[in-house]
Every structure is written in structure tokens, then in C-alpha cells.
Amino acid sequence: MSNRKTILITGGAGYIGVHCIVSLVKAGYKPIVVDNLYNATSDALKAVEAIIGEQVQFYNLDVLDKEALAKVFQENEIFAVVHMAALKAVGESCAMPLKYYHVNVSGTIILMEVMREANVKNLVMSSSATVYGTPQYLPIDEKHPVGGCTNPYGKTKLFMEEIMQDVYASDKEWNIIVLRYFNPIGSHESGTIGEDPKGIPNNLAPYISQVAVGLREQLSVFGDDYDTPDGTGVRDYIHVMDLAEGHSCAVKKITEKPGLKIYNLGTGQGYSVLQLLKAFEKATEKNIPYKVCPRRAGDIAAGYADPKLAEEEMGWKAEKGIDDMCTDMWRWQSKNPNGYSS
Ligand code: UD1
Prior knowledge:
By secondary structure, the protein is α/β, with parallel strands linked by helices. It is 39% helix and 18% strand. It is built from 11 helices and 14 strands. Helix 1 crosses helix 8, helix 3 runs parallel beside helix 5 and helix 7 runs parallel beside helix 9 (273-284). The model has no long low-confidence stretch (mean pLDDT 97). The chain binds uridine-diphosphate-N-acetylglucosamine (UD1). Residues 88, 90, 128, 130, 153-154, 183, 202-204, 207, 219-222, 233, 235, 273, 296, 298-299 line the site of uridine-diphosphate-N-acetylglucosamine.
């Protein structure tokens, strides 16, 4: 156990972070976490510790606090960083762009400065399919042009990627893997960790889940007049444990494949809002009421990944289907109707 490589996860107490902890431990790594608990809770870390059967070293600090972050690198022999610490609400980013640029972009710059000073140059970054903007073709592969993001959140992800490209161009000792997530949903099969959004969920899956458990009355379907088979938006939902495995694969390959690499993490399969709703009704054996509402500003009609490159180069492939996603999501939501504070 003591020979395990240490992986620092920034934002590691968040929804995706705790699932990555499970996957990294399974893959033989020792994860440590930096998180300011802005959008997460230490209960999530307690819950994940129960799954992995060990304690996770946790630093309650902000990535913008350079001195404190540097100390983490002094105290630990870190092999690689998985950088997830960021703000992620699209609507909020339109209202508070400076906050988003500060946390996401400055946070990345500070982290990379600290890493350079500590001579830790292996970095895996959480990016998003949002960097592709409105798809010009489907499925979306990594060669698809980026840009055209309609909101500051999406732009911060693109800027973070560009900063990494420039840093790599200036110093080829860096090994960077950028992971462009499609739509992560679901939870660990234990149902003891999962997505616990603050306030009203922005995203579809947690909203449906909260309707099913009785916290919200009905789902608003944002538009049924898109050019898609049933008129509702189509997305590539991916089980969060599959997504987490993508990070372990990236960490494994990071020095094997030097350079800066970019991979889509998706299943390659698109589902509409109504298809996801039906799958969730099947998993919960409940009727989930909905009403059709106008389109949401900034939404695309359809987006799904071509995930081949990640399979070819990292040996990673999503294994779980839509029914697993819904069943696992429901296990979490029904056991913890109010999230970690249940
Ligand atoms: C959203 C963000 C994206 C971000 C991603 C992950 C926007 C415009 N995009 O992606 O930048 O990277 O989340 O956090 O917010 N829907 C409903 N009713 C709802 C919620 C959603 O019908 O209450 C529909 C949407 O119109 C869309 C689909 O469900 O067709 C998925 O929406 P969502 O879960 O918010 O994900 P994205 O929009 O793909």
C-alpha cells in the first residue's frame, strides 16, 4: 500500500471527484483531496471513505490560495494532479462572469505555477463538451472545432485548455490529458455517494431524480420542437463511474503517452429528454410528471461523442448503459432524498 503513487484531486469532494476517488483507489493509487467545499461537503468524503475502506487526506483550501496549495506539494510526493476545482453553473456564470474567470482560469494558472515550482508536471484536466459550441457534425470527435461557447462557464473551460496548450508548448516536460466530459449522471452502485446539487438543479438528471422522490412537482422539458426524433434535446449521458474510470486510465497513461492529449468521455449514444425520462420511470417504477416549456437559451439540439480515440489510446470505453445510470441514480436519490444532509 505504501508504494502507491499519490494523486492530488482538486475539487475532489465534488460529485465527480468522489467517484474518481473510488476508481483511483481501485486502480492502486492514493488519492488526496484539495477542496474549499464551496459546492461540496465533507460528508461526501466520509461516505467515500466507507466505500474504499480507508481515510482520504483532505485539505480544506482554495486553489486560489497559492501558499496553502504549495504546502500540499511540500508535504506530499505527488505524482499527478487531477484538476476538477471549478465553478460550473451556466446561468450563474452569465450573472457573475468575473467570479467564473477568477476561480476557473486564475485557479488553473495558480495550480500550474505551484506544480511547476514543485516539479510535478503530470496533469489531468476536467473539461467539457461545451467547448465544442454548437456541433457542426455528429458524433463529435476531438478534431471538431472548438469555440462559440455562449456562456462564460464554457469559455473558462476553453481558456483553461488553451492555457495548458501554451504551457505545454513552452515546456515539453509537461504531460497533460484534457478530458472533455459529455453528460455525467448516475452514482456509485452503493447509492451512498451521488450528485447533491445546491438549490434547484440546473441539469436534467438531478431534476428528474428530485421529481421522482417528491421534492419537486414536475419536470420542465425545455423545448419539444428541436430537429431531433421526438423534438426534445439529445445528449450523451455517461455513467459517472465510467467517467471516473476514464480518469484512472488517464493517470495510468499520463507518462506513457507524453504530450498534451485531448479525449472525449462519452458513450457515443444520444438520448432525448423524453427517453431519459422514460428510462428513469422504468428504473423507479414511478410516473414522472412533466410539462413542455419553451427552449432554454443557449441549448443545442443534439450533442453526442465519438469516443473512439479514448479507447484506442487509453484503452477506455464506457461500459454502463442508460438503465444502469438510472437505477444507480435512483438508489442514491431514494436512499438520500435530501442529499448528504438526509
Ligand atoms: C449543461 C451545460 C453545459 C455543462 C453541462 C454539465 C447549459 C446550456 N449547458 O449541459 O455547459 O457543461 O450542463 O454541467 O446549461 N433539460 C430539460 N429540463 C431541465 C433541464 C434540462 O428539458 O430541467 C434539457 C436540456 O434542454 C437539454 C438536456 O435536458 O436538452 C440536458 O440538459 P443539462 O442536463 O442541463 O445538460 P446540458 O445542457 O447538455
